């Protein structure tokens, strides 16, 4: 009799917790690990996965490096114009956090890229088959660099918003408030799309 291909997949991929499914969605764009497992069965499929993840990590390094350089400039130099003062303690703290998170993002992205460049298909399949800690470390190695870049970017944005709300000019404060509203709307739209895609992925299983 016919046995579905997915029935032969490891139990660690079929019986996953909600946390694992969320991590999988963040890392791979799909809450189902079984599709990812099937893509690793061929050498070409594994190379496609590695190429895609290395491209994401390379872009993450570029964005993190830009944030790192920008935060360094703001922390090491004073404002070139008198009406843009970012010397308040709150602004400096947020800029410093952005700097630290960007450094961590560059480091974790580089380590993850080295890992993917030197790994092979057999070792990757064994890590997924083992489940537990190995599965979490596999997914987190993809998610953490992106997470640190996102946190660094948000710290930088809030630093600029804090500086903007300290403007003496009323027009500048209004523009800063408008920027904040646009930021909140964009974040809300992204979270809504994330929830919709996640729910759609669960229904398609």
Give a verbal description of the structure.
The structure is a single chain. Helix content is 80%, strand content 0%. It has 205 residues and is an all-alpha fold. Helix 2 packs across helix 7, helix 4 (43-76) runs parallel beside helix 7 (132-165) and helix 6 crosses helix 7 (132-165).
List the helices and strands and how they pair.
Blueprint: H1 11-14, H2 18-28, H3 33-39, H4 43-76, H5 89-118, H6 121-130, H7 132-165, H8 170-203
Helix pairs in contact: 2-7, 4-5, 4-7, 5-7, 6-7
What's the short story on this structure?
The chain is built from 8 helices and no strands.
Quote the distance from N terminus to C terminus.
23 Å
- Poorly predicted ranges (pLDDT <50, ≥5 residues)? 1-5
Report the radius of gyration as a whole number of Å.
21 Å
- SSE succession: HHHHHHHH
* Biggest sheet layout: none
List the main descriptive attributes of the protein structure presented here.
205 residues; disordered N terminus
